[in-house]
Amino acid sequence: MSNTKQKETAADATKNAIAPSMIDMAEKALDVEDLTNWTDDIQTIMKAFVKAAESLNRPGDRRRKLGSGIRRYGFIDKTSDLAVLNPEFSPALFSSSGLKTMVRDIELVRNLFNVLQQFSRVVNDSLLLYGDQAFSMSLLYYNSVKELARRNVPGAEAVFRALEPFFRRGRRKDEEPTEPEVERDVKALLHGKKDGRIVVENERPHLAGGKHAVVDETHKAKAAWKKTEEAEIDEQ
Length: 236
Description:
This protein is mostly helical.
């Protein structure tokens, strides 16, 4: 990361850190204890739905269920009305009151599903914002420790080394090693410090400069880390 970009990132982190905490603002409308209680209540309610849906656990059961889309729900609702008005046409084992109860249950669960979808979206957005604020605050501390470690402030180096791995990533399987890495591994092999092999294959040697593929299969005692740009975490 360039010095300018690093300064901008640190400035943004400082701005976010000084701004009123989102959690503080949220506590005006709800309390953390409320969230805990709601979570417990949701878990209890969910158990009832899990039990009701046990018949869908076997393979193929879900595909055999018709459900109640717009057209089917319209048919069900109309049938429930007509069955009440014309009970003389009801067959054995049919219950007009039972069908009305089923229609009510469909409406209740559908309304609940729509509310939960909206709730899921706003909670996910809040999670994103909380995470961004927490990362900005942590990044502010990390950049401070890094600078202090560079100045050889006692104790800062150990803290920096503990946080530094989060800004590194291992090489992807399809990623070709860099020339410095290949040269380093070649030297290690020549001096007997590593096991493995390195193969360089020219694919189009007649073209200017040629094109080659490098297969570096050295066996390292420790996992190799490759640094990314400063102050960026590569989440895989």
